[in-house]
Design goal:
With 209 residues, the chain is an alpha+beta fold. It folds into 2 domains: 20-109, no CATH class; 120-203, Winged helix-like DNA-binding domain superfamily/Winged helix DNA-binding domain (Arc Repressor Mutant, subunit A), CATH 1.10.10.10. The protein is 45% helix and 19% strand. It is built from 7 helices and 8 strands; from the N terminus they run ααββββββααααββα. It has helices at residues 2-18, 22-52, 129-134, 136-143, 151-158, 162-174, 193-203; strands at residues 56-59, 62-67, 72-77, 84-87, 96-98, 106-109, 178-183, 186-191. A 3-stranded antiparallel sheet has the order 1-2-3. The chain has a 3-stranded mixed sheet with strand order 4-6-5. Helix 4 packs across helix 6 and helix 5 (151-158) packs across helix 6 (162-174).
Length: 209
Amino acid sequence: MAARRVAAALAAYWDTAIAPHWDQMRSVLEADIACRARQAALGGISAMMNDLHPQLRQDRSSILLVKTFRTFNKTLEVGGRGVLLMPSIFGGPDVMFDQGTLGMPVISYRPDGLGTVWENGTSTISGDPVSALMGKGRTAVLRGTGLPRTTTDLARELHLSGATVSVHLSVLRRCGMVTSWRSGQRVFYQRTPLAASILTAASHSDPER
């Protein structure tokens, strides 16, 4: 009887708190994993680990956790066991260490782009000059690639067909506005520094000038 009540409470919590945001949560987590994998491939494990969180530093087979404001240091000895990186939507600002409850050391951290979980991807800015230049659909796709996204991710978030998103991404890529790479069976897209600078300039423009 108690187990049924617990199961019902968990189901109600899922329906209320998680389900409405699950697609975006999953996209943020998958994008973070793809980004970390790409960092490791391009710059090595040390580059990826040292960028993971300001409190983390790698030193050969050890990972050092430094919390200077608490005068707290802790060393996680990997020792050839490997380490499991676990992005967490509901984690706090600090990283968390587990020395091996799951069979290997675990580091839990907040993924990049966590704030976008609560954003509405279909929202647009009134008088947006970029939308006036490229159209609302293509601009929405471009704005959606601040973090790595697949065509399927963008289609789901923007409520567009996969074919429409694919066409927009193809044009944006030819114009140097997004870059793409393959990770396993998935192709990720992310906007380039050029596109980011254009969006930043547009967000500070005055439509009355």
